[in-house]
Specification:
Elements (H helix, E strand, L loop, with lengths): L6 H9 L1 H19 L3 H4 L12 H15 L8 H14 L6 H16 L5 H31 L8 E10 L4 E8 L13 E6 L7 E6 L9 E6 L5 H8 L6 E8 L12 E6 L3 H14 L5 E7 L8 H9 L4 E7 L14 E2 L4 H7 L6 E6 L1 H13 L7 E5 L10
Parallel strand pairs: 7-8, 7-11, 8-9, 9-10, 11-12
Antiparallel strand pairs: 1-2, 1-6, 2-5, 3-4, 3-6
Helix pairs in contact: 1-7, 2-4, 2-6, 5-7, 6-7
């Protein structure tokens, strides 16, 4: 249990907000440069999110600024803290890793701010860091315990074997995975993801998260991966991984998942490869049965990029409570409305408000950042309570912390 922050620490941390606004990104880059001098620590991170063009330094800068700004009201950061804890568990971050971050952060503050980083300022930030770190460590310990003790659960990295590979579109391929030990797997919550540690020849271990795209079955998981331009892990999976390939996998994690106890209507809203957790949710809802209205709304570029279309429509046909609306932004010349897609163009604010149960539905949203930000803003402005808007996005855990 963390001791409450002292009044002096709160005051000193809040006093650094202007400096963080001006120099926060430089501090974060310096912090990562110090951390990554240790190859064992560097291996814990998804390196595709780092570098000058990476999203993680910007995200962490926003997170640090949000923490300093809300140091007297940390309850406001609770959803972001849970998001970070879930990501840490996927990446196998352990208590012994936290001192490295503390040393790197405080060293970076001193290096960037120079004489302005007095001993009192550094002491305050040290106290503030360990206050938050201890909250994360305690939550992560609970998550690790839940994973380890669940039926079919495990700790650390478990070896899985690819047992099926299915091309879903020109850019998305599904991989079904079974544990190499032949034992059961824990039931994930539809919407959660798996974290992988790939051993790709010529590269340090590569960490990636991929949403599980199937409902729980106790025997296997399915991931559906988009080939990203210059994507090291996705390119390797598409080009090299096949039936028999073995992969190191951490237990399911993530705070974005279906509330299967709710009786409210459900809207599953996705863009591009964001459909992957939505398919898992749809499978689970259809298997559950019932008459609760389910609206599956998906947007993609055209037929060639539209993954799992037939599977989704087959699921919908088996359950009278499911409606499907597919948007193709730029349909190909031979595509036919009503057969290949439902509506040409993008999912508009007007359509979403007019054609989904704004007043009562739970909205689950996944897709690229621009898509997600716009959808969340639209629903909020239309009066949908924040408690009914659930989202997942691609990128660092704290990307929306300061949003």
């Amino acid at each position: 249990m963390s001791q409450p922050l002292s009044a002096q620490t709160i005051a000193l941390v809040k006093a650094t907000v202007p400096a963080l606004e001006a120099h926060g990104l430089a501090i974060v880059h310096e912090m990562y440069a110090r951390l990554f001098q240790n190859p064992d620590i560097a291996a814990l991170f998804n390196q595709s999110h780092h570098g000058d063009a990476g999203s993680q330094p910007r995200a962490l800068t926003g997170a640090i600024l949000a923490y300093a700004s809300n140091i007297e009201n940390l309850a406001a950061l609770a959803p972001a803290v849970e998001r970070i804890a879930q990501k840490h568990v996927g990446l196998q971050i352990l208590p012994e890793h936290y001192p490295y971050v503390a040393d790197a952060l405080l060293g970076a503050i001193k290096a960037v701010l120079g004489d302005a980083a007095t001993d009192d300022i550094l002491a305050a930030w040290g106290e503030a860091y360990w206050f938050l770190a201890n909250i994360l460590i305690a939550r992560e310990d609970r998550l690790y315990t839940d994973q380890r003790t669940a039926e079919g659960g495990w700790s650390g990295w478990r070896e899985f074997e690819v047992v099926e590979v299915v091309p879903e579109s020109a850019v998305i391929t599904s991989f079904t995975l079974r544990p190499a030990d032949g034992l059961p797997v824990m039931a994930h919550k539809p919407g959660q993801y798996l974290t992988f540690s790939f051993d790709i020849p010529g590269h340090a271990p590569v960490k990636r998260n991929y949403s599980i795209s199937a409902a729980p079955n106790g025997e296997s998981y399915r991931i559906s991966v988009k080939r990203e331009p210059q994507g090291l892990a996705s390119g390797w999976l598409h080009d090299t991984a096949g039936v028999g390939t073995r992969l190191k996998v951490a237990a399911p994690a993530g705070e974005f998942f279906l509330d299967d106890a709710s009786e409210r209507p459900v809207v599953l809203l996705s863009g591009g490869v964001g459909l992957t957790p939505m398919v898992a949710m749809l499978e689970a809802l259809v298997a559950k049965g019932g008459t609760t209205p389910i609206h599956y709304v998906h947007g993609t570029h055209d037929r060639t990029t539209h993954a799992m279309c037939d599977h989704v429509r087959t699921l919908a046909a088996s359950a009278g409570s499911v409606s499907v609306t597919d948007f193709h932004q730029q349909p190909l010349g031979d595509e036919v409305a009503g057969r290949d897609y439902d509506i040409a163009g993008i999912i508009t604010d007007e359509w979403l408000v007019a054609n989904t149960p704004i007043a009562e539905a739970d909205y689950y949203i996944c897709g690229p950042r621009a898509f997600l930000r716009h959808a969340v803003a639209t629903l909020s402005q239309a009066g949908v309570a924040a408690s009914r808007i659930h989202y997942e996005f691609f990128g660092p855990a704290d990307e929306l912390l300061a949003a």
